[in-house]
Write a structure and sequence with these properties.
By secondary structure, the chain is of the alpha/beta class. The chain is about 60% helix and about 10% strand.
């Protein structure tokens, strides 16, 4: 996991390396300072040697200045490296997500991905900064200070070894208990983001049904669950501070007691005694060692929290796209002909859980295909196999006579325009949204595409026309206007295959008829797939497919199906009686 994460350090590697170097310099100076102080006390103050006091005072000021400088530099480079590392990590995750197939995206919820890109990366950033500074400073300070303590008095230094052992065992058990709780907390953050995102996205529905109290209840339930787990985790981590304080005060008390005994009992000149300066240095080193232990405990706590975050981030980075370019891809699509050959498909990749079963149909280039079927009959799944949004489980889908798995993915998708069942517009002007279809489209081309999609009239009615700003999700245009803008965007691609997945459901039948008429007259060579619930939207199609249970149960023209299919006639009659044709 760590190796995978560190790949994102990249251009910040120098700063990440310089940080521990400066930290080491800072620690060396801090270790030298108590020695200078001991010498100042024993040989300067007690001997009343003014020149020696001045000399050692200057050296102390220089050592403190150098320590301060190294500390500032280490802080600067640690911040620079950790911020850059987090930025790269978000970049790598986001770019990697763009290569995901629909199947990969289905494995992660949107709320989970948002949490991983924000909260989890922030935890890793803090942990990285602590590792480059505190995790380097603490052990070096502890080792150097222990070495100096053993040089002053080896027997007294054994007190520190005992404290380190007790603290180490305590930290191990704290980490072992706290980690599973933090792992559970971050998963619940996904649920919280999901509740908030769903509420904001559907706020109009929430208010129209007066369900604010229900939404508050959902939020409180998830929030309370996170709160309880966090409290549980913090209760476990709370043992860290009293354990640390116990070790610190115990060491200070023991050193003061035994040190005083050595000074009083043996005298300053005794071989086995201790001077006042040495006791002062020993107490200073004691505080250094214990502070180092406290730092290490903080690092361990942060690592405990960030370990779960790191694993979640690596899951995203290691997820390989299920759909890739072949080794020798084809870069040209000859025409818009499509054929389904014994096609079966399962979202679960399980032949026993197929949602499409043995689909066989040949569609010549330029054909208009209507697809009719009940909800859940896999109409959308069928057309999503054409641009390889999913790959077939068995069988093959061919475009231009070639299996879609042999094409360069970008080439194939540039020749297939889809207007999905759920239309999406992005924040920006109408022109900016339409140029998703063709970034180089001229104003005339944009206007022509909108005229074909019957969108030009309502766009011109806006005060800013084509420069009208679209809010995120297209919330400031109606459903029918959104659908027509999405159709115009697809037409700007000038595709060989155009797929409309129930994309005129929010427009009236007259506008629907005008759109289909424009298709026949303006893009006759384009193969068109029209999924619809209204027979009026597909009755003039060259071929109509009726789907049920993931199979094509009947096919033919409108006239043929009216003659041969009782199901088709019943649907047609019910819609005519319901006044569908006269809406």
């Amino acid at each position: 996991m760590v190796k995978h994460l560190l790949k994102s350090v990249r251009q910040y590697k120098t700063a990440a390396i310089l940080t521990p170097i400066y930290v080491t310099g800072e620690v060396v100076m801090e270790v030298v300072i108590p020695l200078l102080m001991a010498s100042l006390i024993d040989n300067g103050i007690e001997q009343r040697n003014i020149s020696y006091i001045l000399k050692m005072g200057i050296l102390l000021i220089i050592a403190c200045g150098i320590s301060l400088l190294f500390g500032m530099l280490s802080s600067k480079y640690a911040t620079f490296a950790s911020s850059g590392f987090a930025s790269n990590l978000r970049h790598d995750m986001y770019y990697h997500l763009q290569d995901y197939s629909f199947g990969n995206i289905d494995k992660f919820s949107a709320s989970s991905l948002v949490t991983r890109l924000t909260t989890d990366v922030e935890n890793i950033q803090i942990s990285f900064q602590m590792c480059t500074r505190m995790a380097v400073r603490a052990p070096i300070m502890m080792i150097f200070s222990l070495f100096m303590c053993f040089g002053i008095n080896a027997s007294m230094s054994l007190i520190f070894l005992g404290a380190i052992t007790v603290l180490g065992i305590g930290l191990y058990f704290i980490m072992r208990k706290a980690y599973p709780v933090f792992e559970r907390v971050f998963k619940k953050y996904d649920d919280l983001n999901n509740v908030v995102g769903e509420n904001l996205h559907g706020i109009r529905v929430v208010k129209s049904f007066v369900r604010e109290d229900k939404e508050k209840e959902k939020f409180n339930h998830v929030s309370e669950s996170i709160y309880k787990d966090y409290v549980k985790a913090e209760k476990i981590l709370a043992f860290n501070s009293p354990l640390m304080q116990f070790c610190m005060y115990a060491c200070t008390l023991l050193i003061s007691w035994f040190g005083a005994q050595l000074i009083i009992g043996s005298g300053n000149n005794s071989e086995f005694g201790m001077t006042t300066g040495q006791l002062t240095s020993l107490l200073t080193y004691a505080s250094r060692i214990l502070m180092s232990l406290m730092m290490l405990s903080m690092v361990f706590v942060m690592i405990t929290m960030s370990k779960a975050s790191g694993e979640r981030i690596v899951e995203v980075l290691e997820e390989e796209s299920e759909i890739r370019d072949p080794e020798d891809p084809i870069y040209m699509v000859k025409d818009g002909s499509v054929s389904f050959n014994n096609v079966s498909f399962s979202y679960a990749k399980d032949v026993n859980k197929l949602c499409l079963k043995d689909v066989n149909v040949e569609i010549p280039s330029g054909t208009t295909v209507g697809i009719l079927g009940a909800t859940g009959s896999s109409k959308s799944t069928l057309v999503q196999l054409i641009p390889r949004l999913y790959d077939v489980t068995t069988g093959s889908v061919k475009v231009g006579g070639i299996d879609v798995r042999q094409y360069d993915i970008e080439t194939l998708r540039n020749e297939v325009a889809m207007v999905l069942q759920k239309n999406e517009l992005f924040s920006g002007t109408i022109k900016e949204n339409l140029r998703w279809g063709n970034p180089d489209a001229t104003d005339e081309q944009i206007k022509h595409a909108c005229q074909l999609a019957q969108a030009d009239d309502f766009i011109q009615a806006f005060p800013d026309g084509y420069d009208t700003y679209i809010e995120q999700g297209g919330t400031n245009v109606s459903g029918g206007q959104k659908q027509r803008l999405c159709i115009a965007r697809a037409l700007l691609k000038k595709p060989k295959i155009l797929i409309l997945d129930d994309s005129t459901s929010a427009v009236d039948t007259q506008t629907d008829a005008l759109i289909r008429k424009a298709f026949r007259e303006e893009i006759p060579q384009t193969t068109k797939f029209i999924i619809a619930q209204r027979i009026s939207s597909i009755e003039d199609a060259d071929l109509i497919l009726i789907m049920d249970g993931g199979k094509i149960i009947q096919q033919g023209t409108h006239e043929q199906l009216m003659k041969d299919s009782q199901l088709y006639r019943e649907i047609y009659t019910s819609q005519m009686k319901g006044g569908t044709e006269n809406e």
